[in-house]
Amino acid sequence: MLTEQQVIEFSQNGYIILPKQLDSTLLGDLHKITKQHLAERIEPFELEADVRYPGAPASAESQGGKTIRRLLHAYSRHSLYQDIACNKRVVSMVKQLLRTPALFLNPNHHNCMMTKQPTYSSKTNWHRDTRYWHFNNKYLINAWYAMGDEKEDNGGMLILPGSHRWDIQDHRLDAEQFLIEDLPDNKARLLLAQQVDLQAGDCLLFSAHCFHAAGANKTQQDKHSLVYTYHGESTWGLSNTRSSLHKAIPIA
At 140, is the pLDDT very low, low, confident or very high (cuts 50, 70, 90)? Predict the structure, then answer.
């Protein structure tokens, strides 16, 4: 279980790092599976060109346009991915943070192997995942497993500590709900940004309502991150939205 200080840290900052949740043997097996699925282009997946983030290829037909950004449906894609989603140690910590007796994995959001491949990876602007999700409340937690070291040079994550508690007016966001970075009202907030460096096997738990961003991968090595979204029994996807397309999966 998390210490009292870790719970306080999450409450204040919106994230905590759990070091070395996956050992080297497991990481090796995960890399092998991931590389196979990328090489064989096993569907479903999402292309860099699909997200249209800064630096992404303009279309699937342009140079680099076939670069895969996400291997989707991780939970049902391979049994080893499913085992990670059900990691008892991490699951118990997420339950503790959400103060819920039962925990569910939402298969409609994240539930993927995120990739940032050299040359054609894109930048992700400041956003909350909840900007395009449709739930009855904001109490969802993402578990982000680093398959290798994650730092600024390969597109590691940036987080605005405490931003899960911010009340952000609409004029601070663009049409796609990204923070407008050159807006005077936002500049002071962006000075608070923290680079979240992770080592292979670390798990980052962060509120889906926390503003985060990431740069492009400027190295010659792929970056892979396995990501799941969890919520308690008092949170559910709203009817007739993508958030309720597939039924939530009981985890614990």
Answer: very high
